[in-house]
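Researcher: I'm preparing a figure for a lab meeting and need a structural model of a single chain. I don't have an experimental structure, so a prediction will have to do for now. The sequence is pasted below. Please return the structure as C-alpha cells so I can convert it later.
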Amino acid sequence: MRAVLLLMILLACPQAQAQMPRIELNAGFHRIDAEVAADQKNRMQGLMNRRSMAANQGMLFVFTQPDRHCMWMRNTLLPLSVAFLDEQGQILNIEDMKPQTENNHCASSPARFALEMNQGWFASKGIKAGQRIGGIEKSPRPQ
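Model: Understood. Here is the structure written out cell by cell.
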C-alpha cells in the first residue's frame, strides 16, 4: 500500500517524472540550457505545471517540419517569451505569453523550432528577430 501511494505521488509531481533531453544553445555569448521537446508527447506537455525555471534555462520545441506553428499557455504557470526559429536557428519573431491563457502565439513564417524562455529574457539580452540561436544543429531529430 505504501509503495502504491509513493508511486502515485511521484507520478503526480512533474519534477519527479523523467527529464527531457537537454542541449546547450547560445544567443551570441549568452548560454542557454534547454530541455528538448522533440516528440509529440513532450511538445504537448511543454512547460505545463512548472512553478519556476532558472534564469538561463528554457525549452526547445523541435517540429517535424517547418510550418506556422502556434503555442499557447494552457496549464502553464510561468510567464514566457517564445522565439520561433527557422531551420538554421534564425529568429523569425518573438512573442510574450501570459500564464494560463489559450491565446495562440504563432510564427510569422514557417518555423522549425520554438524556444521558450522566461518572459523578457530575449529583450533583456537585446536579442531580436533576425539574430541566430546557435547549437540548433545538435538538437535531436523530431519524432
